[in-house]
Design goal:
alpha+beta
Length: 312
């Protein structure tokens, strides 16, 4: 059911894009074309959500050991980078057109703007209902749906913002129709472009940091230390690696060094299970812990944490 709804949203937005590009060229309105380019970004974002729902049941293979986890962030980065380049170009062209205004046919702006308001409004309504209707049973499912709802809510806010931008196009079209002040279109294009750049930057940053395997997870270093070296039998931990390959997954791996080399395998498993359980409370979905003996203490490493440094 969710997949079908998302498919309808993609269709609605494709209608907007085609209408805005065609009539933007016919009416000579850059504001319509700028909004169309922004909508292309939104369609790709919604399409990623659709693919994520489809690929969520796809298992990893021997060749694709991580499955398609990074597809979301890769598409988000490429899409946002493309959007940034096009918006900078639109600002450049709009400044030139503001100095040398050209005639614009406002009727096209008004008609297409109204179509965009309706289509974006319907899309926002569908997404809002999807976010509200999502329910979960059990702790693990609750964590999964929390991220899914966040993505849907984000898409809903995008569509709502698009609807407001389309209202701006309609108002500008009416203003141009009555007063023939064509510079309004250039001003509107610059405002839209700056808004889109400001609105898209967090996704560009988040996707880039994710692709670079930089830790973006909101957990304090002291809290992580306290969890890992809480047990007195742990001397230190090192080779810590944290990454967030997708909006739903959080990976962590590290080595722990034990004081006593004679701890049984059963005791080691109990010890690491406790650490894993505590880390899962912070949303970590993939946890790898390697247990080392006291001979594996590292003299210098950028990621060593000793037990005595943490107050337990």
């Amino acid at each position: 059911m969710q997949e079908k709804k998302i498919l309808w949203i993609i269709i609605f937005n494709l209608i907007i894009i085609v209408s805005e590009i065609v009539f933007g060229l016919l009416s000579n309105s850059f504001a319509l074309i700028a909004d169309a380019l922004h909508n292309i970004g939104d369609v790709i974002a919604v399409a990623i959500t659709y693919l994520a729902l489809r690929l969520s049941v796809t298992r990893a293979s021997f060749r694709y050991t991580f499955g398609f986890l990074r597809a979301e962030m890769m598409a988000g980065f490429v899409n946002t980078l493309f959007l940034f380049l096009t918006m900078f170009y639109m600002i450049y062209e709009s400044v030139f057109r503001f100095m040398y205004p050209e005639k614009i046919e406002p009727i096209y702006m008004i008609v297409v703007g109204i179509i965009a308001v309706i289509a974006n409004g319907i899309s926002a309504y569908i997404l809002n209902n999807m976010g509200v209707s999502s329910c979960s049973h059990g702790e693990h499912e609750h964590h999964h749906h929390h991220h899914e709802d966040t993505n849907i809510h984000s898409a809903y806010l995008h569509m709502l913002a698009d609807a407001l931008i389309s209202v701006g196009v309609v108002v500008a079209g009416i203003f141009i129709y009555f007063f023939q002040i064509y510079r309004v279109d250039s001003l509107l294009t610059i405002l839209f472009s700056v808004y889109i750049l400001f609105h898209s930057y967090p996704l560009l940053k988040k996707s880039f940091l994710s692709l670079m395997d930089i830790n973006t997870i909101d957990i304090e270093e002291e809290k992580l230390d306290a969890i890992i070296v809480a047990d007195e039998r742990i001397l230190e931990y090192h080779d810590l690696h944290i990454s967030q390959p997708s909006s739903k997954e959080r990976f962590i791996s590290f080595h722990i060094v034990l004081k006593d080399d004679n701890i049984t395998l059963k005791e080691q498993e109990a010890l690491t299970s406790t650490i894993k359980r505590d880390l899962e409370h912070f949303g970590f979905s993939h946890i790898v812990i390697q247990v080392d003996g006291s001979g594996s203490i590292k003299e210098s490493n950028y990621c060593i944490k000793e037990q005595h440094r943490v107050s337990v």
